[in-house]
Amino acid sequence: MLFNSYVFVLAFLPAALAIFHLLRRNGLDRASIIALTLLSLSFYGWWDARYLLLLVPLMLANYGLARTLVPREGGRRPGARWMLAAGVTVNLAVLGYFKYANFFVDNVNALFGRDIDLAHVVLPLGISFFIFQKIAFLVDAYRGRVHHLDLPDYALFVSFFPQLIAGPIVHHSEVLPQFLRRGSVPPQLFAMGVTIFVIGLAKKVLLADNAALFATPRFDAVAQGAAIGFMDAWAGALAYTAQLYFDFSGYSDMAIGAGLMFGIRLPVNFASPYKATSIIDFWRRWHITLSRFLRDYLYIPLGGNQHGRQRRFVNLFVTMLLGGLWHGAGWTFVVWGALHGAYLIFNHGWRSMRQRLGLLGRVADAYHALPARALTFLAVVIAWVFFRANNLEAALDMLRAMAGGHGIAWSGEASAGLHPFPDTALALAAIAALLAIAWLAPSTQQLARYTGPEREVVLDVHEAEDAHGPRWQPTVRWALPAGVVFAFCLMSMTRVSEFLYFQF
Predict the structure, then answer these.
(1) Which of 91, 98, 289, 465 has the fewest CB atoms within 10 Å, i.e. is most exposed?
(2) Averaged pLDDT, 387-406
(3) What is the pTM of this model?
(4) How far apart are CA 204 and CA 196, in angstroms?
(5) In terms of C-beta density within 10 A (0-12 exposed, 13-18 middle, 19 or more buried), how is residue 61 classed?
């Protein structure tokens, strides 16, 4: 069941909201939590009921283990470290089997000339997200950071449908306390959720899916051996850059919006990453909760920056390499992660050199902000080519075309008979418009003044406008445009496509 499908928008979500709020209105707060858990499991089982045979036992096993890991008053239980190691190992083994078994066997066969046959392993949706979430909870339970452990709340924490498939990777401290709140959801919070959900739906249906029309044919042509021209190569790469931006941004908005409708504030996961002036800044804006997980549960345990400059760079590279592999079982993702690891090393080295030379400061930063943003964007686009390409050969062919290896014409002759492209000039104009939105428009959280679970949402009418222009308010003035956009999205949802991050 896709967020951008009629069955979700017109059936499941309204039904889930009706059940939840009816229970809340009648004072059945705990029953509403249990009902929302069952609804979330139904949402996951809609794809394939067999997925529940993995999700539910894994949920119960991790809950039971977490109970044994929480320190008692006298300290940790005997053998707690070994139990934690066993729990993490089992979770990683499940992830490794379902996500990487075929990749491993294929590479063994290629390397040693073997013919090992492994039945195709179906990848359960969102397995990377909910495995990471469970591992983080076990580690925090062992460290004594879990202060509330109740099966209904834990079950909802790991299965809450807005974030189950593609994040954000929610930390228990952000949502478990919210499950204990009683009473009805404030109308202003519900209205904000509807608005943010509609904005996300528009990003996916109206922007991302149309960008895909320019990106997919060009990447498919290269994968089939076409030598496309310089302009078409850049049109394809930039179209995918825009597609992925609005696809993931749209999902993140819809997850937050749906959460707010149930009174749950999820963390911000996307903050205008193409406005970043460095790769460091980019990773503070793109998939924020994944960056947080990799920092807290991988980079810092590896030693972080506590053991010298060279060790810090090694830790950065390993973290990003594994972050790339987390996205997918393929060498293209490994190279993508390695590229970003190298980018971060260079970025930290450059920042240290500027600091030693006294070149840091407001004046210096303002002077180089525009070229820094352009260079960062170019580096990100190049890395996205590996992220999107079917294999390394196709990625290198696309980069070769982007470098002018097949001429500077609008379209290479070899591509003519394979995939008829939408007009290249039209593609570039559409892409320019999409990227202008990404670069110049306020983010959804800026527009709605949404701050995530850390602070209460500000809803003072007198604070509705500031130096950056008008901000959202739960008024008819804002509801009417949202209604029009929603209606237009419904008319455009005849061609339903998965969110790109569903494959991870």
Answers:
(1) 465
(2) 93
(3) 0.90
(4) 13
(5) middle
